[in-house]
Amino acid sequence: MVGIGKRLIDVARANVTDFASAFTTDPEVRERRRLDDELERELAQEVDNTIGARAGRRARNVADKAEEAWERAFDEARARGGTSGRAGVTPRTIEGWYRTLEVPPGSDFTVVRKSYRKLVAKYHPDRFASDPDKYAAATEVARKITEAYEGIKTHIGEG
């Protein structure tokens, strides 16, 4: 294993040699440098055309497109008036949530939680498992109750 000091000296020596040879008038040195540069370009082109390089470029393109889509969605949400992810929540929607939970609009979260638990216990689908029609209706009611509770929880900031 080569020490870092030796590697740094070798790199510095190579750079000084390249720098000095850049100003030479010797045709052999110039031809060797031209051939080295040509070989380096060919090698870079071969590496650039490997399967791994192509896959890497495709992956970067996909990642770039995903990031652009994310930024567009974020900008659109911000333009709609919020970054909370609850775009389109109007005061009327919030009032509907309170009505669904059978509490006055603006009620304390403790009151909302208590009403939610009471209503879920009352309309839980498992209570109506013997009747398919009632079970389906109870499932829908429970879903709406839960949606209202989650909406208020997010709106109030308790979640």
From TrEMBL:
Q: Which InterPro entries match?
A: DjlA_DnaK_co-chaperone, DnaJ_domain, J_dom_sf
Highest taxon in the source lineage:
Bacteria
Q: What name is this protein filed under? A: J domain-containing protein
Q: Which organism is it from?
A: Plesiocystis pacifica SIR-1
The residue ranges of the J domain are: 96-157
